[in-house]
Amino acid sequence: GLAEIDLLTGADLRSQFKDLSALENGDGEATNSAMLLARVNEDKALLTRLLKSQGWYLPLVESEVEAGEPSDAVAAKIAIEVEPGPRFVLSDISIEAEATVPEGLIADAMALKVGDPIVASRVLVNEALIATRLPQNGYPFAEIGARDIALDPDTAQGEYTLPVTVGPRAKFGGFAVSGDAVFDAGHLGDIARFERGELYDSRRVDDLRRALAATTLLRAFSVEPQATGEDAGDGTEYVTIAVDQTAGPARTLAGAVGYGAGQGFRLEGRWSHRNLFPPEGALTASLIAGTLEQGGSLSFRRAN
User: Fold this and answer.
1) By three-state DSSP, how is residue 233 classified?
2) What is the DSSP letter of 217?
3) I want to staple 188 with a disulfide (CB 3.0 to 4.6 A). Which of 175, 180, 198, 267 is the partner?
4) How far apart are CA 65 and CA 80, in angstroms?
């Protein structure tokens, strides 16, 4: 049963089943027998999917419905029996990819090994690790292909094949600007924490995305690597960082008016233009007018 499988896998299949069960979600009630049988069949399919996700690819899931009297409020008793069968394991792992620099870049990212149970979540994690590691180490255009897992029911084993397109190894080049640009290529270079000629690293590009969001001057933007084919030495090529921008509203206006005992009337206003002196030169003016307090200020701030 599921309890024994939970002990073997550490997965809480019983809890997952209860959360997704059509019978559970129906609160124990069904309008007619057809609806009841539909929910039973849906739960049998659910159990089959859960078992396959943990490596049991030949489960036998049977149900038994014991009908009660027509006048009985408890009209039926339902039993679902599970025979999981053998658990499939990996007999071979084949990554079809071009050589990388350094060698073993993909192998070092692997989270699977021969003999491991074929668990869907582990397979997905393995592919995500490869897809993340390559762009962090100079391969901005790496792509993970469609996996193939050939199952042998006689041996309860599976051969896992994953094609990976590595793409060119790249170094940072310049910037390309498009859209309703707030920042030109020169200022993007000031914001970015990488220099031309450094090995491409997707974490540096993510850092640039965060920095652009922090300026609050863009309504929307995208930052993507763009191939150039330009030789950068050492078997690499330069990659352009393409930044498409949509300017957001730069001005803000706020104010408040009130009256307090012993303080009298008070009027306060604040106006700001966050990019009056591009790039990122903000001017802010504030004014206070009141019975007991009057004042004003003007401030200038330049970021990056």
Assistant:
1) strand
2) -
3) 175
4) 9
Of 4, 6, 40, 3, the closest CA to residue 23 belongs to 40
What secondary structure letter does DSSP report for 200?
P
> How many whole angstroms separate alpha carbon 196 and alpha carbon 66?
73
Cα 1 vs. chain centroid, distance in angstroms?
34
In terms of Cβ atoms closer than 10 Å to its own Cβ (0-12, 13-18, 19+), residue 241 is: buried
Cα end-to-end span (Å), the chain: 61
Q: Model pTM?
A: 0.83
Whole-angstrom distance, CA of residue 175 vs CA of residue 1: 59
Alpha helices in the chain (DSSP H): 2-9, 13-20, 22-25, 33-53, 105-109, 120-136, 185-191, 202-214
Q: Please answer whether residues 101 and 235 qualify as being in contact, where contact means their C-beta atoms are separated by less than 8 angstroms.
A: yes
Q: How far apart are CA 239 and CA 250, in angstroms?
A: 31
pLDDT digits (tens, 9 = 90+) for 19-36: 888 878 876 666 677 888
